[in-house]
Amino acid sequence: MATLQVQRRAALAGAAGLALGLSSAATAQVKVVTRLDQLEGQRVALRYLDRNLVPLPSAAGAYAYDILRRADSLGVRWRVRRFTVQGHQQLLDAGYAGELPGQVPHARVREWYPGGQLREDVSYRLGKPDGPMKTYYPSGKLRRDQQNRAGAVVRSECFGPDGQALDVCPGYRSSAKLAGKGAGQAAVFQSLQKQFAQFVPKSYARATDAVVHVAFQVDSLGYVQDARVLASDDEQLNAAALEAVRKLPRLAPATAEDQPVSSVLEGDFFYYPARRTAAKDE
């Protein structure tokens, strides 16, 4: 079984190498990462995702893969290109500023539908839409034609699926959020961390700090799906992390063009033995 997985991983890495234009010898050196902080010191890496684009701990069951490449050009620190495993259809081409990809979009970002039709083409500057923004329906018809400056809308026209002009443009995007707790991944994981401590068995003891890195989907109804551990300092903490995720209340789902959509959340649970000892002594 292990040999088959290695062979499969090598085959997928070879496909990614073709997309990159790398030689077979070069792809043999490409590291597969699960969490993005494993990119430290790497110039290029691969990351696998399932059909809902939730990161995977290995190539097994992958629907898509990301090629993560250090750029260091005109403010773009990372370039990310995403392809389907079957057919190698491109899904994403994005530039990011910052130490890790995925956090601060910068320069041009393009996304495609699985069938190959362009979904959107947006220019960013340090995380804010800046310049032209166009989005499209799966049919290829224009959905939004917008001009932005430093995150502010300068001009915007939006159209229905039949091409009719809309009186008001819908909201472009929003993140999944907990009711009354603010939007975004950070707010969700702050709440999760409090729950995590409750699920760690009282008998558990460890002398050093530990981190459990998880990812999960929030579907278009706001329910958590496909929660998984991507990396862990101590497998004994994995069950507590997953139970905390499962106990999340229903979230307000992310939206795109004012329509609810699924999204992916990813982050860490922290175990600090000093705090655990202090809590026992109180």
Automatic annotation (TrEMBL):
Native source species: Hymenobacter edaphi
| Keywords from the UniProt entry | Membrane, Signal, Transmembrane, Transmembrane helix
The record's section on Gene3D superfamilies has: 3.30.1150.10, Histone H3 K4-specific methyltransferase SET7/9 N-terminal domain
Provide the leader sequence positions.
1-28
TonB C-terminal domain location: 206-263
Q: Name one GO biological process term.
A: transmembrane transport
Q: Name the source's superkingdom.
A: Bacteria
**Principal place where this protein is found?**
membrane
Q: Where in the cell is it found?
A: Membrane
Tell me the classification of the organism that encodes this protein: Bacteria, Pseudomonadati, Bacteroidota, Cytophagia, Cytophagales
Give the protein's recorded name: TonB C-terminal domain-containing protein
Give the membrane topology.
Answer: Single-pass membrane protein
